[in-house]
Design brief:
The structure is a single chain. Helices cover 37% and strands 22% of the residues. With 503 residues, it is α/β, with parallel strands linked by helices. It has two domains: 1-367, ANL, N-terminal domain (Rossmann fold), CATH 3.40.50.12780; 370-502. The chain has an eleven-stranded mixed β-sheet with strand order 6-3-7-8-9-10-11-15-14-13-12, with helices on both faces. It has a four-stranded mixed β-sheet with strand order 2-1-5-4, sandwiched between helices. The chain has a three-stranded mixed β-sheet with strand order 18-19-20, with helices on both faces.
Length: 503
């Protein structure tokens, strides 16, 4: 295994030279990607409708093609789901990534082409290992196996005559892995792709505890569930007693900050963490520096990027800008065109740039996940920072949370209502709530203005939920496992009221 580790390390490090190329020439690479996408799709139904043959530059593209939300693009996707081809992309679409649908109850089906699998998702998977090994030259990650916590997939029910499937993006990737990658992972695919989540966790726990696991890939929320079950089964106090060679957790989908203290408890040092930005629509970013959670924007994955400044987001026809115009520390809605046929697609995430040379980002929130019932404009990044500060000051460890507005009423001012599930409760809940509130004031001037002397907003109200509440709530909603995420913020009381009924 030492020899295999040396060979694989050498192979992975070779990719670093290609990464350095797009770091050096980002605008040339973006232009090349753009031209290739337009040329490839010129004879598709979409390409003909929007005159791709007459598009010679990005300005033409913006003028001819509107910004698409999922609902706008769905008529084209529906044709693909029903077995038609050459609609958005010329090569055959056999797979669809089914999104978690955290912003509404309807699932979304994102087409996944072979090019998107090979040149985006798989390339991103190899790059995260290349970057990790480059930063940790003594790594022995290839001497053991990786645990991948994914979702499930099934035959496309919209078109039973064709050989097509849909599932969580993790399941789509697992189902198409090359043979050498399958040998390096655990558990077996028949367990990893099970749809019944609680049975899957049980079988994953029992089948992986006997393996030499060196790395874990997954969403923090559901990884915690697996690790806690493994400790229950084995009677061990921490995961290194089960997997002594475990060295890295590769995570994404949700912010890691609320889970950091919990993972330190489950997996004591030495342990490394690597964050990625991998969604149903594509693989966008990888943490490339130790000691910083900034994500390197990956520019050679067949994705062309545009950005909407959030101050213009709610305009009827908001103007987008390219990488050559972005500024540091401003929030932008992300718009992508991809090698799976998503054209000027608004994916719903907001990012801010932390570096322009090279281009590094942080995910700052969702275009629909915020609280702005009173003009306070609280985004997920604000909430995560405030939660972390409050936990540090009160020795608390958080499990999950969600928050929403508390509306004006007779004799009652507006405010925010939080439901928080702690692993370790704060030593003083009033102090926790005060620091949460004070931190939000410090980092968000709009919130601070509304909280001034409690004129518009009263202090937040915090409910402490018993352990397991969010798990039961997600199960009730049919949202266990895979890419499903607990919605952190909402601009209405839909989630808050639903959980309060349980409490």
């Amino acid at each position: 295994m030492k020899i295999i580790n040396s060979i694989m390390t050498w192979v992975m490090k070779k990719r670093i030279h290609d990464i350095e190329l797009f770091l050096k020439y980002p605008f040339d690479v973006e232009q090349e990607i753009f031209s290739s996408l337009i040329k490839t799709a010129v004879k598709t139904e979409f390409g003909k409708e929007y005159g791709f043959k007459d598009i010679s530059n990005v300005d033409d593209f913006k003028e001819r093609v509107p910004i698409f939300r999922y609902e706008d693009l769905y008529p084209y996707i529906e044709k693909l789901l029903n077995g038609k081809q050459n609609i958005l992309w010329p090569t055959e679409i056999k797979w669809f990534a089914k999104s978690s649908g955290t912003t509404n109850d309807r699932s979304k089906f994102i087409p996944v082409s072979q090019e998107a699998l090979t040149d985006c998702h798989f390339k991103g998977g190899k790059d995260m290992l290349s970057i990790y090994i480059n930063n940790h030259p003594d790594s022995e990650i290839f001497t053991g196996k990786g645990v991948a916590i994914g979702g499930s997939q099934q035959i496309n029910q919209f078109d039973t005559t064709s050989n097509s499937y849909y599932g969580d993006v993790s399941a789509v990737i697992m189902s198409n892995l090359p043979f050498w990658a399958r040998l390096a992972r655990t558990p077996s695919l028949d367990i990893a792709l099970m749809s019944e989540w609680e049975e899957k966790i049980e079988k994953m726990a029992r089948s992986t505890i006997v393996e030499n696991v060196t790395n874990i890939v997954g969403v923090p929320t559901w990884t915690v569930v697996l690790l806690e079950r493994i400790l229950e089964i084995t009677g061990k106090t921490h995961i290194h007693e089960v997997w002594p060679n475990l060295e890295v957790f590769i995570h994404g989908a949700v912010s890691f900050e609320p889970y950091e203290a919990l993972f330190e408890k489950l997996i004591p040092d030495p342990m490394n963490y690597l964050e990625t930005y991998n969604a149903s629509e594509g693989f966008f970013g990888i943490q490339d520096q130790t000691g910083s959670r900034d994500l390197l924007l990956m520019l050679d994955y067949g994705i062309f990027y545009e950005f909407i400044p959030m101050e213009h987001f709610h305009e009827n026809n908001p103007k987008t800008i390219g990488l050559d115009e972005v500024e540091l520390d401003k929030n932008y809605a992300l718009v992508i065109s991809t090698n799976a046929g998503l054209w000027r697609y608004l994916i719903g995430d907001t990012v801010r740039f932390t570096s322009l040379d090279p281009f590094r980002i942080r995910i700052s929130g969702r275009t629909k996940h915020f609280i702005n019932a009173f003009g306070e404009e609280v985004i997920i990044e604000n909430a995560e920072t405030a939660i972390k500060k409050a936990c540090e000051a009160t020795s608390a460890i958080i499990g999950d949370y969600t928050a929403g507005p508390r509306y004006l009423g007779k004799g009652q001012k507006g405010g925010h209502e939080w439901i928080i599930e702690f692993v370790t409760p704060p030593d003083n809940l009033d102090k926790f709530t005060k620091i949460l509130d004070e931190t939000l004031k410090q980092i968000n001037s709009d919130y601070d203005a509304k909280r001034y002397k409690s004129i518009a907003l009263e202090a937040p109200l915090v409910h402490v939920a018993p352990r397991g509440t969010f798990y039961k709530w997600m199960r009730k909603r049919g949202k266990l496992g895979g890419q499903n995420k607990v919605p952190r913020l909402a601009n209405d009381r839909h989630y808050i009221d639903d959980i309060l009924v349980m409490l």
